[in-house]
């Protein structure tokens, strides 16, 4: 049984942004009588449909979160068609700023949305605080460690987790190069998603007697500097979890890492599509669709009986063939790790 939220963290900003819901389109006709009949028919049809309003809130803009948001929107459209209902949704980005996210969440609640779908951990935490008084359903997407983020045991909160199988990615590093002596760990201290995977990676490497070099960063410029430091340290490979800060800067670092002969293993396929070498994780399109389904269930059936969170299925190996060629690594080395998806670098 879920419990009411007691205290997540203190946020002191007030709502300053205005949310809008999508409006219905209208059409005109040269025949006034026909137009009136059409309008009446449209109104009757609308009256027969349930109408729901949803706020979708990305923590920030980058490929992973964009992919999830697109999938959520597509699934909500499908749900509306399949169930003969109307679902209005608006998409917002918090620009990785806690104050902005709180303003968005507070206004969504004030506007009486039926559910909030926050994407990524900070967005989920902030939305949970905004919805505390009204108990508006919060159905988050892509929170790697809901328990560490204090998003469990709350009766109006559920969502999907993209929990990472760190051991499997570590195994991939050594499958590609059994002679690895030093692994770089590149992540942000501000990302809750990174805490457990980095701890797991250290434990794995300690057990194997492999050294590691840590570099942390919280801005794009810091990520570039941190990556340059790892190149200078001549690490044999780099591991980054599902870290939104590093993901946002991947396009700025992948060429230098590849040129230095350093494969970058990451926690999501979006990194790989932006130039990183390889990952083994979840499909974010599937995760987004699953999140939308859960949100509709929460709206229409209530939260009773729903789990604290649902872990998305993983096991998909994604490899960037252009980066693999630059590194001179044969992608067939990963054939025993799961279905291998080959991609090329894009800036989407």
List the helices and strands and how they pair.
Layout: H1 32-48, E1 51-58, H2 63-83, E2 86-93, H3 98-110, E3 115-119, H4 121-130, E4 138-140, E5 157-161, H5 166-176, E6 182-187, H6 192-208, E7 211-216, H7 220-232, E8 237-240, H8 244-248, H9 250-259, E9 264-266, H10 269-273, E10 278-281, H11 284-301, E11 310-311, E12 316-320, H12 321-327, E13 339-343
Parallel strand pairs: 1-2, 1-3, 4-5, 5-11, 6-7, 6-8, 8-9, 9-10, 12-13
Antiparallel strand pairs: 10-12
Keywords: Signal
Region (Disordered): 23-44
Signal peptide: 1-32
Number of strands: 13
Q: What is the beta-strand fraction?
A: 15-25%
Which homologous superfamily in CATH is the superfamily of the largest domain? Response regulator
The CATH topology of the largest domain corresponds to: Rossmann fold
Give the strand order of the largest sheet, numbering strands 1, 2, ... along the chain: 7-6-8-9-10-12-13
Reported CATH architecture of the largest domain: 3-Layer(aba) Sandwich
Main β sheet profile = 7 strands, mixed
Number of domains: 2
| Tertiary shape | elongated
What is the overall number of helices?
12
Radius of gyration: 22 Å
Stretches with pLDDT under 50, minimum 5 residues: 3-35, 37-42
Q: Note the gap between the termini.
A: 41 Å
Fraction of residues in H or I helices? 40-55%
